[in-house]
């Protein structure tokens, strides 16, 4: 009997395949051109979740046959210290990709840091120049990893998105805004909801594609979903349970599953794609040095 599991979009398996392909391409780049794709990962402070993500990125980079360089600054590091480190990484020709793990401590201006990374090494795609390229539909910049991963998962179940009504719930610079731009470029009619939106449920009920990126556990309810919609859950929310804690998405999964045609689980959906796409961007950054 069907229990809905056939509707699950398995991001973990998709990401594993992508990482295998990247490994082969990285190997070829090294063998043919002597270029070892290298990612510098910078973390400031001791946020435990960030430490887990940084370790995952370092491990995934090495498993993909690439090199990683980790830099850890103390939680009271100044913006100037961080900018000095970024300047050194920008100037180092052996480093192809640079990322600063977010969030950064409050004494550091996030945008000043992101805009200090050389755009051609900005594998997170957060630099204002790469954001601008995406905004005007140019394909020559880096696209942020989470929206890129969402788009890949979406296209794995619906290869042509042209004409679809999409709702993006959340307008962050890291996910919501770039996601909306990617979907528009794929031919979707896109609505972005945000904190001031009057009726998010009503907007969502019209959607063939729902991207939930609000950072609010279980926000999207079963009766918000048009029958047959595709639901991509970007949320990563830690909630307390009797046994301790667990990670849930922005979608009330059990309620939404019966209505959706396809849905990403949390964990195991979008999250693993974020890191796989980071590896892909790093490989592209390294490859671009051939034509620079
Ligand atoms: N510089 C950046 N900072 C941050 C980014 C980013 O893309 N660049 N995104 C997030 C954190 N993040 C990567 O950095 C990230 C978050 C979650 C996952 C993931 O695989 N999640 C798992 C569940 C994890 C768990 O159980 O704890 C999943 O969804 O299956 C990967 C990367 C903010 N900062
Ligand atoms: Mg996930």
Quick rundown:
The protein is built from ten helices and ten strands.
Verbal overview:
The chain is α/β, with parallel strands linked by helices and 292 residues long. It folds into two domains: 88 residues, 3-Layer(aba) Sandwich (Rossmann fold), CATH 3.40.50.10860; 127 residues, 3-Layer(aba) Sandwich (Rossmann fold). It contains ten helices and ten strands. The chain has a five-stranded parallel sheet with strand order 5-4-6-7-10. Strand 8 and strand 9 form a beta hairpin. Helix 1 packs parallel to helix 10, helix 2 crosses helix 10 and helix 6 crosses helix 7. The termini are far apart. Magnesium ion binds next to helix 10. Pfam families: THF_DHG_CYH, THF_DHG_CYH_C. It catalyses: (6R)-5,10-methylene-5,6,7,8-tetrahydrofolate + NADP(+) = (6R)-5,10-methenyltetrahydrofolate + NADPH; (6R)-5,10-methenyltetrahydrofolate + H2O = (6R)-10-formyltetrahydrofolate + H(+). One of its GO terms (biological process) is L-histidine biosynthetic process.
CATH architectural designation of the largest domain: 3-Layer(aba) Sandwich
CATH fold naming of the largest domain = Rossmann fold
SS field, number of helical segments = 10
The CATH class assignment of the largest domain is Alpha Beta
Number of strands: 10
Query: Which strand order do you get reading across the main beta sheet?
Result: 5-4-6-7-10
Give the overall pLDDT as a whole number.
97
- CATH superfamily placement of the largest domain: NAD(P)-binding Rossmann-like Domain
The gyration radius over C-alpha positions equals 19 Å
Pathway: One-carbon metabolism; tetrahydrofolate interconversion
GO cellular component, one term: cytosol
Family: Belongs to the tetrahydrofolate dehydrogenase/cyclohydrolase family.
GO biological process, one term: methionine biosynthetic process
């Amino acid at each position: 009997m069907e229990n809905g599991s056939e509707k699950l979009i398995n991001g973990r398996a998709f990401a594993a395949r992508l990482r295998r392909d990247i490994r082969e391409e990285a190997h070829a780049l090294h063998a043919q051109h002597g270029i070892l794709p290298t990612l510098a990962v910078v973390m400031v402070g001791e946020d435990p979740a960030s430490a887990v993500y940084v370790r995952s990125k370092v491990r995934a980079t090495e498993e993909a046959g690439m090199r990683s360089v980790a830099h850890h600054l103390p939680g009271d590091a100044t913006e100037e210290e961080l900018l000095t480190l970024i300047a050194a990484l920008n100037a180092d020709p052996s480093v192809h990709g640079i990322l600063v793990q977010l969030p950064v401590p409050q004494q550091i201006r996030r945008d000043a840091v992101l805009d200090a990374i050389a755009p051609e090494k900005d594998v997170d795609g957060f630099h204002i120049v790469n954001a601008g390229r995406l905004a005007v539909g140019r394909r020559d910049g880096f696209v942020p990893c989470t929206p890129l991963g969402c788009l890949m998962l979406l296209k794995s179940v619906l290869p042509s998105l042209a004409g679809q009504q999409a709702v993006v719930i959340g307008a962050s610079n890291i996910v919501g805004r770039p996601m909306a731009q990617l979907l528009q470029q794929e031919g979707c009619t896109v609505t972005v909801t945000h904190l001031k939106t009057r009726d998010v449920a009503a907007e969502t009920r019209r959607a063939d594609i729902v991207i939930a990126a609000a950072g609010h556990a279980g926000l999207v309810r079963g009766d918000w979903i048009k029958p047959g919609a595709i639901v991509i859950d970007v949320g990563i929310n830690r909630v307390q349970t009797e046994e301790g804690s667990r990670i849930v998405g922005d979608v009330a999964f059990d309620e939404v599953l019966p209505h959706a045609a396809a849905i990403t689980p949390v964990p195991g959906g979008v999250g693993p794609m974020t890191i796989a796409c980071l590896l892909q961007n790093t490989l592209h950054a390294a490859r671009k040095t051939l034509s620079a």
